[in-house]
Amino acid sequence: MPTTSPQTLRKQLAQRKADPVYLIVGDDEAEMARLSADISALVEDELRAFNLERLYATDRSVTPASIVESARTFPMMGDRRVVLVLRAEKILKPKRRGKVIEEEEATADEDEPQGDADALDAYIKAPESLTTLVFVASDVDRTRRLYKTIQKHATIVECWGLKGAKDARIDLRQVARTAETLVRQAVADAGQQIDTAAARLVAERAGTDIATLRGDVDRLLLYAAGKPKIDLKDVQEVVSAETAQDDWAVTTAIQRGDTAEALRQIGLALEAGGVPYMILGQLGWFVREKLPAADPRRVPAAVEALFRTDVELKSSGGDPRVLLERLVVELCSR
After folding, report:
1. Which has the least CB within 10 A, 38, 152, 190, 246?
2. Burial class, 213, CB count within 10 angstroms (exposed 0-12 / middle 13-18 / buried 19+)
3. Looking at domain 171-239, which CATH architecture does it have?
4. From first to last of its 334 residues, what are the pLDDT tens digits of the chain?
């Protein structure tokens, strides 16, 4: 079955319609939690004690067989039963025992042991019409037979936050625009407004980390509660205060062409717990907003270096500190 979006799923639920089996997967935990709550709302409040069950795959008592047993239980006094399987990566991306060679990985769907998992596989192929079974996972193993069954017979909802897709090539400009839109929407939903520069700064400091973005927005709204309009000063006071000084010090040093100071500030930022992607987001802001005015001839090489570093960070192509230091040296070069 095709992958659907959170927006499409919500339209479906608003019509009181639901598919028998869903997989909600991604790194945007807040969005995934909201979707789980939206599906849970299919069960009337007074009947949730009977017809809504939350199972945590990390619990030893939760097995594929127990999930099937819960899903095959008929609803009581209602027309719908919802079973949520949370932390489902425990089942959909289990840790492999021992050393796995490439041949075993390539044939994982053929070599999985028969037994407990078969019952869940069979259920997904022929689910109960009165039950909505929902798997909520941070990731899945796409080589496994169970995932392939889900892919064929269930509805998959991807929530990859600012990245768009798990393995998508990251366009930092598009990520920044998407993040800024999310900031504006969250502020508007809270009944407030935000300056353009302030929204942009929140987005830039989050980089590609949706959890950081949502956390920063929550703190900002709490700090500026009651203010009709949030300004740049509010953001500078609240958002990512623990790394802001170091992050801006890096870009300031690069703008001066001071390689030694920029490298020192990168080290300080990482030692203080700075997230490599957040630092990369700051460097991306410098390349997009500052470098064209300072020296437009350097922009093509800087953009190429930025994207290369982004790909290498995402694919674990080296030590993050070394990758960022190399990028800083290239950005400082004239």
Report:
1. 152
2. buried
3. Orthogonal Bundle (1.10)
4. 668 889 999 999 999 889 999 999 998 888 899 999 999 999 998 999 999 999 999 898 999 999 999 999 999 988 899 999 999 999 998 876 554 434 444 444 444 444 568 899 999 999 999 999 999 998 999 999 999 999 999 999 999 888 766 766 667 778 888 889 999 999 999 999 999 999 998 988 877 778 888 888 988 998 888 888 999 988 888 875 444 444 467 888 888 788 887 887 887 777 766 778 778 888 888 888 888 887 888 888 889 898 888 888 877 667 888 889 899 988 887 6
Q: How far apart are CA 161 and CA 170, in angstroms?
A: 12
> Where do the structural domains in the chain lie, given as residue ranges?
3-159, 171-239, 240-334
CATH topology of domain 240-334: Zinc Finger, Delta Prime; domain 3 (1.20.272)
What angle in degrees, to the nearest 10, is found between the helix axes of 299-314 and 172-189?
A: 70
Q: Give the class (CATH, top level) of 3-159.
A: alpha beta
Q: Which of 274, 264, 158 is nearest to 209 (CA)?
A: 274
Cα–Cα distance between 303 and 307 in angstroms, integer? 6
